[in-house]
Design a protein that fits this description.
Jelly Rolls; 4-stranded antiparallel β-sheet
């Protein structure tokens, strides 16, 4: 498309939505150090969804299906049945990553604190990526293992 038509049909004020997603992915430790090409491969398999204020993203005890990356808005992670807020997460943060490796029940609930848009990265998509591009898949799985290991170490330190 020539520049004249490109300027007419470009979304005003929003920039390229794919570029915004790539910028967010670059800030996620799970995707740290990946090339633009690798990030684009990840971006193509993400599932975008908008949640309304107070809408449940997943409930404690549900099977884990994958992780979520907050593109816009905020999310509360809540321990039930006491409804204790464990964390409030914002744009560029992620949660539920353990479900990429293990489909065991969720350890807490996630609710949109305000209207938010989240990008879902689900276990079947990760496994498909590993089959199609083993080198990229292994990079992601190794980073995921490091993140989970770091969180476990931090939790152990806090318990001492």
């Amino acid at each position: 498309m020539n520049s004249f038509w490109g300027n007419i049909f470009q979304r005003r004020g929003t920039g390229n939505p794919a570029e915004k997603v790539l910028d967010i992915l670059r800030r996620i430790p799970l995707f740290d150090g990946l090339s633009s090409r690798e990030l684009s491969a990840i971006e193509r398999i993400l599932h975008k969804r908008t949640y309304q204020k107070q809408e449940l993203i997943f409930r404690q005890g549900d099977p884990g299906l994958g992780m979520y990356i907050i593109e816009r808005g905020s999310v509360e992670i809540i321990s039930e049945p006491a409804n204790t807020v464990l964390a409030e997460l914002h744009e560029g943060e992620f949660f539920g990553e353990l479900a990429l490796l293990d489909d065991s029940p969720r350890s807490a609930s996630a609710t949109a604190k305000e209207e938010c848009t989240a990008l879902g990265f689900f276990q079947p998509d990760l496994f498909g990526l590993v089959e199609r591009n083993p080198k990229l898949g292994v990079k992601i799985v190794m980073r995921l293992a490091r993140i989970i290991g770091d969180r476990l170490k931090k939790c152990n330190e806090e318990l001492r």
